[in-house]
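Example 4.3 (complexes with small molecules)
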Amino acid sequence: MGSITLKNVRKAFGDVEVIPGVDLNIEDGEFVVFVGPSGCGKSTLLRLIAGLEDVTSGSIQIDGKDVTDAGPAKRGLAMVFQSYALYPHMSVRKNIAFPLKMAKMPEAEQEKRVAHAAKILNLDSYLERKPGQLSGGQRQRVAIGRAIVREPAAFLFDEPLSNLDAALRVNMRVEISELHNNLKTTMIYVTHDQVEAMTMADKIVVLRAGNVEQVGSPMELYSRPANKFVAGFIGSPN
Ligand code: ADP
Ligand code: MG
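Answer. The structure with adenosine-5'-diphosphate bound is encoded below.
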């Protein structure tokens, strides 16, 4: 579970067309990176998939089911926000359990899921701490834990590492890739960082002014860029 299909998805804010029309197929279990310069529409496209914005026209399917008019809660996807979105007054345990508590899940099931997420993320010994007592990397893992417990069909990341320092960013990249290997759940990862895209993706979607310039593996984009923009952006010699 976790295939996502966009058919001629268009988004305008008032008179301003931000996404002129995108067709895209994401397969179950893929690690897909949306990359492109600031303002090209990466966040908007992700928010359309999440259901946080309504499409102006076009359709979105998840696992073959049309969700174009469904709200975010009905889509079974989890958006991972940056670590500063944690509740500072709540323990790690409570932060991770928060979406389950909101969904009124039975406590025993909540505990089971939190324990599972904590194990995957190496947070077992930090569950009673407050976010302020954690390192930046641990805080980011708590933010990811909050997504894992929901057992989503796909994880959606919007530049989750942009407020971490360079060394930590490299570590977290590896951790998120390992998490994907471990869970094998579809992940869509938005970044403006070409290196992040090239090192993490199964499939890269290069965006420019709301248009998909090229979709391909890192190797395909590097060796056969569709145009000068892709070549320049990816840093390919062609
Ligand atoms: P990116 O994430 O690639 O930096 P965004 O998706 O945030 O780009 O933005 C794409 C374009 O859409 C920008 O020009 C931005 O100003 C515009 N935009 C985004 N959200 C809104 C909104 N709610 N209202 C009006 N314009 C918006
Ligand atoms: Mg953005």
